[in-house]
Amino acid sequence: MPLPRLDRIRDEIDGMFAQSSMVRNRTIAVLLPCYNEEVTIGGVVRGFLRALPGARVYVYDNNSTDGTYDAALAAGAIVRRELLQGKGNVVRRMLADIDADIYVLADGDGTYKPDAAGALIEALVVRNLDMMIGTRNGDDKAFPSGHRFGNLFFNRVMAHMFGDGFTDILSGYRVLSRRFAKSFPVSSAGFEIEVELSVHALDLKIATGEMALPYGTRPDGSTSKLRTYRDGLRILLMLFKLYKETQPLQFFGAAGTMLLLVCLGLGAPLIATYLETGLVPRIPTAVLAAAIAQLGFLSLAIGLVLDAVARGRREAKRMRYLDLDAVANKP
Predict the structure, then answer these.
(1) Exposed, middle or buried, 18 (CB in 10 Å: 0-12/13-18/19+)?
(2) 8/254 Cα distance (integer angstroms)
(3) Which of 213, 211, 216 has its CA nearest to residue 143?
């Protein structure tokens, strides 16, 4: 009798905590790319080890000049090095090296709360999503008004280019499924990696979700590696690059349309004069208008060709994505 009773109690507990049971059967890897985070990385590693018992915490040291490597190792993390400088390069290496069912991607600066990882993972598994984003909810000290404005600007640009889907595309706190991570061809080198993650999800129409989480300030002695204007420009350029690669017909079509409008503005008076007199005045202007028209039609043709190429690349990524099991399908 004791054994059946224990089984019944276990079943009742699993029924009460079904979500936790689903998550408990999956391997979890916490990914922490780091550069000069000696002050904070130890506490972040210990926080994730407490919040996610059984998870493996990986710290990739990106050429730090302080004691980041030793501090992460002492805290219990699996520590490796990545020599190519930049967060995007580190994330590319991490996703290539590490195999897990669920990936928790965060920063080592202590601004994201490790305790929130469990809620993000639960939402990912229970809702059968492939990416959960922890949107930042902090005061002006943690999230300055200038950064808040820039974040809003980039979100608007993203929505205009790729469609609505996210409210904080630059958040570094994300949970990814294995099929998202292994179908994501990282090309970013720096902080624009978050933009690329978001565009990948929108381009393949991957199921994602968001959850508002507290965003804290850096402790004394820890400095941000983000250079507002330089990295902001890189993020903007990455948005246009990804728009060109994923939506080439719209990109080159817009350029072609603008060129044809310029051609029409230059050539309309010449055409009107020709219809009235049979003469073509201002020959250089006529030649310029014809050349611009050729460029316009060439841009449209390039857009059509590259659109077919982009469709093929999208299908290839989609097939790779479908080769892998959904996060909720693992028993």
Answers:
(1) exposed
(2) 65
(3) 216
113, amino acid identity: K
Cα–Cα distance, 326 to 22 (Å, whole number): 13
Residue 82 CA, chain-centre distance (Å), reads 20
- Name the residue among 235, 234, 111, 217 with its Cα closest to residue 170: 235
Mean pLDDT value across the chain: 86
Using a 10 angstrom Cβ sphere, with 0-12 exposed, 13-18 middle and 19 or more buried, the burial of residue 169 is buried
What Cα–Cα distance (Å) separates residue 179 from each residue in 5, 17, 99, 162, 281?
39, 26, 11, 22, 63
List, for residues 136-165, the tens digit of each pLDDT value. Answer: 886 656 566 767 788 888 899 999 999 888
pLDDT digits (tens, 9 = 90+) for 322-331: 988 888 776 6
- The predicted model scores a pTM of 0.83
